[in-house]
UniProtKB/TrEMBL annotation:
Any matching Pfam family: FAM32A
Coiled coil location: none
Name of this chain's protein: Family with sequence similarity 32 member A
Taxon lineage: Eukaryota, Metazoa, Chordata, Craniata, Vertebrata
GO cellular component, one term: nucleolus
Originating species: Sander lucioperca (Pike-perch)
Similarity section: Belongs to the FAM32 family.
Region (Disordered): 15-55
PANTHER family, per database record: PROTEIN FAM32A (PTHR13282:SF6)
InterPro entries to which the protein is assigned, alphabetical: FAM32A
C-alpha cells in the first residue's frame, strides 16, 4: 500500500464543468454578425466600382478568337439539340457499320 500513498484521492476536475465555469458567460455574436453584414455590403459596393473601372487588356486577335469560340460552341449546342434520340441511334449504327470488325474473335488454328 505504500506505493499508492502518494496518489491523490479527489474527484476529477474537468474544464467547463462545475462552480468555477458557472461565472463565465459566453460573448454574444450579434455585434460580430452586424459588422460582417456591413463589410459584405461595403465589399459589394467596392466590387461594383471595380467592375466599372475594368479595362479589357486583350488584343484584337484574342477578342476575335473568343468570339469565334463562342460562335462554334453555340453551333455545337444547336446541332446536338436538333437531333432526336432516334436520329442519334441511327447515326451511331451507321458509324458502327463503317468500322472494321476488330472485336470479333479471330480464328486460331494450331495445325496450320
Amino acid at each position: 500500500m505504500s506505493e499508492y500513498a502518494a496518489a491523490q484521492k479527489s474527484t476529477l476536475k474537468l474544464k467547463g464543468v462545475g462552480a468555477i465555469s458557472a461565472g463565465k458567460k459566453k460573448k454574444k455574436k450579434d455585434k460580430e454578425s452586424k459588422r460582417r453584414l456591413e463589410q459584405v455590403a461595403t465589399s459589394q459596393n467596392d466590387e461594383e466600382e471595380k467592375t466599372k473601372a475594368y479595362v479589357d487588356k486583350r488584343t484584337p486577335a484574342q477578342i476575335a478568337f473568343d468570339k469565334m469560340q463562342e460562335k462554334r460552341q453555340m453551333e455545337r449546342i444547336l446541332n446536338k439539340a436538333s437531333k432526336t434520340h432516334k436520329l442519334r441511334v441511327e447515326d451511331f449504327n451507321r458509324h458502327l457499320d463503317t468500322l472494321t470488325e476488330h472485336y470479333d474473335i479471330p480464328k486460331v488454328s494450331w495445325t496450320k
